[in-house]
Amino acid sequence: MSQWSQVQQLEIKFLEQVDQFYDDNFPMEIRHLLAQWIESQDWEAASNNEAMATILLQNLLIQVDEQLDRVSQEKNLLLIHNLKRIRKLLQGKYHGSPMHIAVIISNCLREERRILAAASMPVQGPLEKSLQSSVVSERQRNVEHKVSAIKNSAQMTDQDVKYLEDLQEEFDFRYKTIQSLEQSDKNSALIKQEMLALQAMLNTLDYKRKEVLSKIGRVIHEIDILMSNMLTEELLDWKRRQQIACIGGPLHGGLDQLQNCFTLLAESLFQVRRQLEKLDELLTRLTYDGDPIPVQRPQLLEKVSFLLYNLFRNSFVVERQPCMPTHPQRPMVLKTLIQFTVKLRLLIKLPELNYQIRVRATIDNNRRFVLCGTHVKAMNMDESANGSLSVEFRHLQPKEMKSSAGSKGNEGPHMVTEELHSISFETQVCLYGLTINLETSSLPVVMISNVSQLPNAWASVIWYNLSTNDPQNLSFFNNPPAATLSQLLEVLSWQFSSYVGRGLNSEQLNMLAEKLTGQQVNYNDYQLSWAKFCKEHLPGKSFTFWVWLEAILDLIKKHILPLWIDGYVMGFVSKEKERILLKDKTPGTFLLRFSESNLGGITFTWVDQLENGDVTFHSVEPYNKGRLSALPFADILRDYKVIMADNVPENPLKYLYPDIPKDKAFGRHYSCQPNEVSKPSDGGGKGYVPSVFIPVSKILSDSTDPHSPSDLLPMSPSVYAVLREHLSPTVIETAVCYKLF
User: Fold this and answer.
1) How many structural domains is the chain composed of?
2) Could you report the per-residue pLDDT of 460-477, keeping only the tens digit for each?
3) Host domain of residue 145
4) What is one cellular component GO term in this UniProt entry (predicted)?
5) Is residue 473 part of a domain?
6) pTM for the structure as a whole
């Protein structure tokens, strides 16, 4: 079943989440019509390879054209219209930036996998639940409503200022007309009546001036309250959601909504500023005793400038955290002399600022590292698909400075993966007479000099962003706090859903919890230390919990990914638990689990029944990446043989736990069927006997015999038949013996 088919079967609450990240950047119609083709492409790789992304974009447009031809024959007018619009939109948006659509599609597929994993969990995790609370959604709606109301109020005040200007012009004209008369004419009854009318008009002007200033004051007050409370909370929430998304959590949305709010508030403040300037202009033409403008205007103008400064400072954000293109799912880990990308956005989107803001990137001030590459660029609205005012640095690379002792070495091999650094950005905005200096920083990054340091560096990134909301605590690991076990397990499940397409269920998480704590505990109350997670070796082992888990992730990604995504790898189950699960099952029932004693190993255990009715279990020595590079795991399960006491090889694996026929579970993952091997005369074989590799094990009757150190022996069926004809059973046993445990 395709991933999209699984998505469509989700409950409505999960479908609503899916709906949130499909928009004009990648319309859901295309996702639906081209589901299988989209899922068969490597969008993640294309997001870091422009040539590959260009080809995929061209193929995507070809696929859309084929769908357009199909619906044209069916005369589906609505779908024809939508597909034409979508094709034009895709070509227009991504013709010059094909990697951008690769990033978008890769993120969408990843988020689908995360939602599918969340749907399989009995309850929503505590972190994800906190990010999606109804209180947050209600506040978002309130912010948007209040911003809209403020914008309307500012526009209405514009009309009041215009009325005041017209009224003052009329007063000025009538007053100057009277002043131009001869002194004798000023004493006439008509002129005295006109003077009374002018006094009444002046009173009206005074009232209107006070009214306009009061309205401006109310608009400024509303903006101040909104910025100090709800908008600040919204921005902090977005930054927290970004932190969680960086470590595998739900994709963070809402930045476009924040941009809309920031832009409307900035427009409103500049509008109020122009209104105050107009009042100053009116003041130069007419003032009087008790005039409210010279008293109130300076205070209001100062407050507007203060709010604009704060609004601009808060609007300068890191939209996409530093990340090496070679490791898109491990952001904030940077390798020296390797390029990384980072994207910034100014949430105040004003046309006057396009290409007018130059951003400078630097690294923290400890002088240990410098940034090489293009580190000054102008923000613009042309590079982003959504037209935001942003800048993306794509060619920065950190370099470690030589030591003061004059060492000629470049990057040292023993960088501390708990040492945090910060990428800083600064710029200056000059607009309408205002000059505002802006600064922002990335989340803390970890520097490495060798890719072997990546797992521990990534563990540091996970622990930091799980444990703190502080975006700049570079001394965090001087005394790292403990983490709540329930939240940590949720993040560990995200590592699997984001990196290998399927998260962990409650039973798998239970096993990890016991491995971390050595006992059954209450998830919500237990606090786990950083040392337990990443520093201390597991009991009786030469590696830490995190190194063990990271090796499993690597094994899944490179060797058993389709089997893992299909849910056929139980994986995290102890030896004791597997025997409980298998003991009452039909002989030949087996399950797949990850080795607890070997890094990056996977084994299978099956249940058998002795002649006296006793149940016995057999577990094959774990397969590591070396063996799996030579033979696909699905083929191993299909062809696996054991030699019993009578030397007759047979496959003991019949049913995948609980009762799924083996071929039904793994059939579509077999590289070829055994009976599909060509005959000697087929395909230009030149008389050679065709062969396939078959893993063979020997079950020894004496359980006290030592474990055999030998590896699995690949053997073709024809070779094995020849051996049986010409060699004694003892010699065969010596050749293929593979002790099971």
Assistant:
1) 4
2) 999 999 999 998 899 999
3) 136-313
4) cytoplasm
5) no
6) 0.79
